[in-house]
Amino acid sequence: xxxxxxxxxxxxxxxxxxxxxxxxxxxxxxxxxxxxxxxxxxxxxxxxxxxxxxxxxxxxxxxxxxxxxxxxxxxxxxxxxxxxxxxxxxxxxxxxxxxxxxxxxxxxxxxxxxxxxxxxxxxxxxxxxxxxxxxxxxxxxxxxxxxxxxxxxxxxxxxxxxxxxxxxxxxxxxxxxxxxxxxxxxxxxxxxxxxxxxxxxxxxxxxxxxxxxxxxxxxxxxxxxxxxxxxxxxxxxxxxxxxxxxxxxxxxxxxxxxxxxxxxxxxxxxxxxxxxxxxxxxxxxxxxxxxxxxxxxxxxxxxxxxxxxxxxxxxxxxxxxxxxxxxxxx
Length: 330
What we know:
alpha/beta, FAD/NAD(P)-binding domain, 2 domains, 25% strand
């Protein structure tokens, strides 16, 4: 069975939802295909996470977001985006993965597989890629990284009580994880190849983690890297030489990247130095006519340039461009 639409949006995060809203408000039929759940990346954030921004900067579709505190938390954000999707009656196909995008502008054929293994095909005039970057973690590329005890996402600290836990990285996610794990009774070691905690760590978090390290409540190895991960230990290269540490779990929180393989397979041209996709800044249409990019993938490897706060406005640019091309023909 083949379904048709004006635009198919790949990804149902905040930016993908914003694209769906803007398209629908212009009378265009949009289908959103999401390989996980609605706002899948936010769902995978730490359970007790608080955003670093205010509610109004996370809003889409001119729907107000409320919060009990100055900054909203993960639970409030999930509830808000569900409410927005319901309010605009967005057609979101959850747990469905895009396998391939064929065809050309005004006649794209998008092939997908849903959670039951059923294959589907969509025909769309335009395609919008709003796939984010959180689903593809950066890897350490060391022996033992494939062990079950190695995790690239931090959810909550309780399961690691009274265990030896290594946290790799020194930015916000690593600092927060290290603190929460220590507060919950884990024996925490922070490992980072740089000289110290990143300057980008939020101002109310950085003194806390630095004080825990100074007081030796959280062990630390800077200018160091992991050589090997073993079932009950890890090997490090440090300025003092090789060190072996007892270890039960490893959180490799060294960042994430866009799914560059998917972009390449879709025919998106990337700048060689930055891996930034080539787009028309006025419309966000890529070099492959009819395919638009939205959200953090526009920035390539510079993922710190685009967040929900500014990526949510991409939907308007894209919808205006698509509507200007499709509406005259209707």
